[in-house]
Specification:
By secondary structure, the chain is of the alpha+beta class. Helices cover 59% and strands 16% of the residues. The chain has three domains: 127 residues, Tetrahydropterin Synthase, Chain A; 36 residues; 41 residues.
């Protein structure tokens, strides 16, 4: 503990194993099924199993200058990189370069799933996986990489053009549907208006017919009455309703005489 004293003699050996999570950068090249190289970069986060590390490596330090006596600690990074490469090789070897590049975003998830399913490679090395990040997956050949990127750009432009065309077609379709709807609505309104006019005309005709029939029935009792009598009745009706003036002309009397009953 703090303040403790130790007696160091030449026959004492000290070892130091990191217990914090180590971030180890990795980069390697693998061959795809079409025999093309793919360059992978990333980093793996591991925690070391102290007992396993002391069994497999020499982590002894010089207590006087606090440095490792051998290069075994640096070999841990190499072992982690090789282990990750082994998992990656199993995923890449049966795929074409194009397939690997296209599915690069899913490669990290697939490697993590493979390690979770079988972590024996790391366990044998005395390591426990804490995290994994694949930062780059690209063809080893720069010219091929440029060609693939150009192809991707063309595909993206084609997709963008198709999207624009689709939007324009959708807009044209919507405009056409709107015009058809408006035309249909106008036609429907006109049909309704025509129907209303037809109904109104039938009502007017029916009302006129009813008025005529009512007038005919009202006048039916006076059909055989002498015109002079009818004139007298009319004069009396006008007098009762307040007509101010009524003139009997010779022409009217002559017409009434002619309309009288025939002998």
């Amino acid at each position: 503990g703090i303040g403790a004293l130790f007696l160091i003699t030449p026959w004492h050996t000290f070892a130091r194993v990191p217990t914090t999570v180590l971030t180890i950068p990795v980069s390697f090249t693998e061959l795809t099924s079409d025999r093309l190289g793919v360059f992978v970069q990333g980093e793996i986060h591991v925690r070391l199993d102290v007992e396993a590390m002391l069994t497999q490596h020499d982590f002894s330090v010089d207590p006087w200058i606090d440095t490792w006596l051998k290069d075994d600690p640096t070999r841990v990074n190499e072992d982690a990189g090789k282990a990750l490469q082994g998992y990656m090789r199993a995923l890449i070897k049966d795929r074409t370069l194009e397939d690997v590049i296209v599915s690069a975003s899913d490669l990290e998830t697939q490697v993590l799933a493979a390690i979770e399913a079988d972590s024996s490679r790391l366990t044998k090395l005395g390591m426990h996986l804490e995290g994994l990040f694949i930062t780059s997956v690209k063809p080893e050949n720069r010219q091929l990489s440029a060609a693939i990127e150009a192809t991707k750009r063309e595909e993206m432009l084609a997709i963008a053009d198709k999207a624009i065309s689709t939007r324009r077609m959708a807009a044209a379709q919507s405009d056409r549907e709107l015009k058809e709807y408006e035309a249909g609505t106008a036609q429907t309104m006109e049909e309704k208006r025509s129907a209303l006019i037809e109904v109104r005309n039938r009502n007017v005709i029916a009302e006129a017919g009813a008025d005529a029939e009512a007038a005919s029935k009202k006048l039916e009792p006076y059909r055989d009455v002498d015109p002079g009598v009818l004139l007298a009745l009319a004069i009396r009706q006008m007098a009762e309703t307040g007509v101010g003036e009524f003139n009997l002309t010779p022409d009217l009397l002559t017409a009434l005489r002619r309309a009288g009953p025939k002998e």
